[in-house]
Every structure is written in structure tokens, then in C-alpha cells.
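Here comes just one.
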Amino acid sequence: MSSVHVAHRFSRGAIVRAMLLVLVGATGVQLSAVFAVGLFEPLGVLGTSSLRLAIAALILVALFRPKLRGRSRAEWLGIVLYGVAMATMNAMLYLAVDRLPLGIATTLDFLGPCAVALFASRRAREGLLAVVALLGVALIAGFGGPLDPLGIVFGLLAGASFGLYTLLAARVGHASGGLQGVALSVVVAAILTLPFSVPAVPLIAPPHLLPLIASALLGTALAFTVDTLAGRLTSARVLGVFFAFDPVVGTIVGALLLSQVLTPAALVGVMLVVLAGAGIVWSAGADAGSGAGGGGSGDGADGGAATGTPGPPGPPRPAP
């Protein structure tokens, strides 16, 4: 491995900020699912998912005003692939949520990021933390009872898409296009799902507008933005562990808002996931302290170096 691809060391402060951003995104995704579940019957599962993407695309384009010119072929490839991952992940997750408890669906969804964290680990302790997070997620899933087989398939497909999303969040986050690239990726996702969103438009009634817009804002526009900002602050393998917040928050939201009871095993699982996240933060701080000059929080280093997926370098970009 050449010196250009030496693994980047990130500061503890950058890791903490990334963790908080992922937690905000996870909360938005799970709350948006609560809003969206009530729209499945009138608008259809795929109609609801696709309309959310369309609304979020309009919001992000208006906010960030992305430019189409001046982008390299590699940058466009990352943007398009990110959009494909977004569209597939949303559709498969919602199809899973329609058939499974929220905590179970998000548990299966997390398997993708966990696999990224596990296979990208460079040291035994990093792999161990990913395994601890996975064990916690497995305990969280233990309260589900009999599961719909097709729902499990949809959840696993969502997980595969989430794994690709995890890799690309770091890649697009470190690209010079920044949040403009995220906006374009959401546009790509919205275009890909037009066959489902267009037929659902005539079915929208006034009572559907508020939950639809809230779901789009929380679970799509906000979540994709903060995930990409987190990807700029750390690597895909660390994001893969932090995305364990999704099943944790999904379990809590399901218990509080959807009357899905938490068992002692699920509570132990929550604690294990939190412990794994804390371990990643501590480990990153120790690495930064032992590295030459410490790590930056998203400087010109290659965000994909840790995963073997090089991302286009870009200057530091302050959070909005």
C-alpha cells in the first residue's frame, strides 16, 4: 500500500461529532417511519417511500442549489451510486417495516453497515467492537416473535443497500461537492422511484400532507445530510458501527409509540450497542494520540482509505 493510501487517523472530537450526527439521523429515520406507517394503506408502501424521496429532493435542491457542471466522472459515479443505494434502501426497509416490527426491520437493516465495519477492521479490537454491536442488535431483535419470511428477505435486502450506503456516505462526504452532491444523489433516488411516486400523487389527501412532509424532512432530507456530514468526519468502518443506533432507536421508538414491549434482553442489547460506540470513540482518541500530529476532522485525507475505496479529496467544509 502506497503512502497515498495510508489509513487516516481521526481525532476523538471528530469521532464524537460523527457519532452525534449519526444519532440525530437515526432518530429522524425512526420517527419518520412512525409517520410513514399510517400512509402505507392509502398511498402504498412503495408510493409512500417514493413520495418522501421526491419531497426531500425538492427541499435539498432548494437549500443547496447543486451545480451540474464541473464535476468529474468519478464524482458523478459516486453521486449516482449513492442515489441508487438511497432508493433501494428506503424501498426495501419500508417493505420490511410493513411486515415486521420496527426494531426487527432496523436490526436486519443494520447487518449491512455491521459487515462493512467488520470486514474493514484493521485490528482485532475494531472487529471485536463490531461483533459486540452485532450481538447487541441480535438481543434487541429477540422480542419479535414469529417473523414474516418475506419481511426478513426485504430486511436483508435493505441491509445490503445500507452497506453500500455506508461506504458511499464516507466517499461522498469527503468529495469536494459536499452537501450539493447529497442533494443530487437524492434527486437520482427520486427519479429512479418515479414509477411508484407518480401513481401515488392522485391518492394524496389533505390529511396525508403533514405526515408525508414530516417523514420526508426527518427520515430523508435530515438523515441523508447528517449521515454524509458524519462520513466527512470519519471512515466507513466507524460509521458502520455507529449505524447500530438505528435498531437501538427503532426499538425504543417502537416501544414508546407503537406499543412494542421492550424485554430485558433488548435492554441488554441497547447497552451493548452503546458500549461498542463508546469503545470506538475511545479507540479513535487513542489512535489519534499515538499518530503523528493527531488526526483531523475531515481534512484532505482519503475517506475511503480504511475500506479500500478511495474517495475524491476535498478541503474542509464547515457544518451548516
Remarks:
- Residues 181 and 202 are 31 Å apart (CA to CA).
- Residues 1-8, 291-320 have pLDDT under 50 and may be disordered.
- The longest helix spans residues 206-233.
